[in-house]
Write a structure and sequence with these properties.
Elements (H helix, E strand, L loop, with lengths): L1 E10 L8 E11 L4 E5 L6 H8 L7 E6 L2 E2 L5 H8 L2 E4 L11 H11 L4 H14 L15 H13 L5 E5 L7 H18 L2 E5 L3 H7 L2 E6 L2 E7 H5 L7 H4 L12 E7 L8 H9 L3 E13 L2 E12 L7 H13 L3 E4 L3
Parallel strand pairs: 3-8, 3-9, 6-7, 7-8
Antiparallel strand pairs: 1-2, 1-4, 4-5, 9-10, 11-13, 11-14, 12-13
Helix pairs in contact: 3-4, 3-5, 4-5, 5-6
């Protein structure tokens, strides 16, 4: 559905110095019907990428294809027509205060000249779709933050786009409302078959709703893949943020081992790790850990404290054999530094 091929955007320096490379040759494919998260620190190029996707910014070089159409090559009326395939949801929704929820949803339909009768039908469909029945005649000041974002989503879907771009859609919401909005996005993808791109800095959003994730760093793709692939790669830059290891408790004298498992690992649960340790007469206790189920697979980062069943410390040869067997089973295992 979306293909970026060698996408580059270079801005001239305002003071005549070195040009600023906002995007440095991005290659990325986002499949139809997927929910794809794009993450990165401030200045990584996320905003420039969105502007290139919507045709608001012309790339310096490269292609931006949406459903086979090169957005970057279009001008004027052709570009405006192509933009109807792209819906946009903003962080603050940016509703018109003087308009009711229904009239805010109708606004893009008025711009494209949809007849009033059909416009009213479409607004009613969208109000029902996003769960705003009974609130359509309220102004933004009479709506909660979650309801305002539902209006923004409905407005983004008004022209029946093929792609929905969401720029930090939940960063201004509380955790409960965030979960509701993410569930709505997931339901809309399932019901409409729409492709969703979420720009976010919140890893909880990526874990909750995304099928795939891409990390931008300094205008280039640092890592990209399915959520399971990325979370299961402890050597990658995103795994520790998607599956963070909380601080271990102090005052533990046992030998500590950090374990990352999941994906291609033959160790499928934390109990598998504990059972393997038991084969050496060793007791393994989880002292810290984060465990998530992604695409039906348990992915975890845990820290184990090891000692023999009789209370004596595990021997160095026993520890090395345990680490070796873990690694042969596909677990990334290292002795924790104290």
């Amino acid at each position: 559905m979306i293909t970026l091929d060698g996408l580059t955007k270079v801005f001239p320096a305002p003071s005549g110095g070195d040009p600023v490379v906002a995007l440095g040759g991005i290659d990325l494919h986002i499949g139809k019907g997927s929910i794809h998260g794009i993450v990165g620190r401030s200045g990584a190029g996320k905003s420039t990428l969105i502007r290139c996707l919507t045709g608001l910014e012309k790339p310096t070089s490269g292609r931006v294809e949406i459903d086979g159409t090169d957005i970057a090559a279009l001008e004027g009326a052709a570009l405006r027509a192509a933009r109807r395939d792209i819906g946009m949801v903003f962080q603050q929704a940016n509703l018109l205060d003087s308009r009711t929820a229904a009239k805010n949803i109708a606004h893009p339909l008025e711009i494209i000249g949809m007849p009033a009768a059909r416009r009213a039908e479409r607004v009613a469909e969208l109000v029902s779709l996003v769960g705003l029945e009974g609130r359509e005649n309220n102004h933004p000041a009479q709506l909660s933050g979650g309801q305002i974002q539902r209006v923004g989503i409905a407005r983004g879907l008004a022209a029946e786009p093929k792609v929905l771009l969401c720029d930090e859609p939940t960063s201004a919401l509380d955790p409960s409302t965030t979960r509701q909005i993410l569930q709505l996005i997931r339901d809309l993808r399932s019901r409409l078959g729409i492709t969703v791109v979420i720009i976010t800095h919140e890893m909880s959003v990526v874990r909750e709703v995304c099928d795939e994730v891409t990390l931008l760093e300094n205008g280039t793709v640092s890592q990209s893949g399915s959520l399971l692939e990325v979370a299961s790669d402890p050597t990658g830059p995103l795994a520790s943020e998607l599956i963070p290891l909380p601080p271990a408790p102090t005052g533990v004298d046992d030998v500590m081992v950090d374990c990352d498992y999941g994906g291609n690992s033959r160790m499928r649960t934390t109990q598998d790790l504990i059972d393997l340790a038991a084969t050496y007469g060793t007791r393994a206790t989880i002292v810290a850990g984060t465990i998530e189920t992604i695409a039906g697979v348990q992915v975890g980062r845990v820290q184990l404290a090891l000692h023999n069943h009789d209370g004596t410390p595990i021997t160095r040869p026993g520890l090395q054999q345990f680490l070796t067997d873990l690694r042969e089973a596909g677990v990334v295992a290292t002795e924790a530094r104290r």
